[in-house]
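Handout, section B. The chain below has 158 residues.
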Amino acid sequence: MDVIAGREVGEERQEEWNQALETAARLRAAELWVLAVPMWNSSLPWPLKQLIDTVTQPGVAFSFDPAAGYRGLLGGTRAVPVYTSQVYSPGGAPEFGVDHQSTYLAWWLEFVEVEQVGELRLQPRFPDASLPARRETALEQARVLGRRLTRARNDVAA
């Protein structure tokens, strides 16, 4: 909050601030984020949430203007989340879980202006005999997405 208020980061927090800046710089340097997102308690696993909280800093991942509100600062970055779960399945009954996983991540990517350029899912209602076929389908979708992203990158480079 020091940064939003226009103050220097306090000396007692400078080391943590520098670590957050270093982590954010590594993410910004990546051409594409492939995010492994297993569902934990209907949401993100805490290590991913901790990464999000670490880099979502004012002046790093977003800015704030009292008149205009928030604006993301990670534009130009692209991401592909890969969602997995063992009981929840999209379109399933609420008794099998609720998806706060992809809804939160999609919101966050938009908030910091990261372009979501695809998504992959392997979310069977429960691992059963159909799991190998579902896994093959997910792998083929990953191959197709990979080819599409490679072509798009080559088109930009040309």
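Note. The chain has one domain: 11-157. Compare this with the example in section A.
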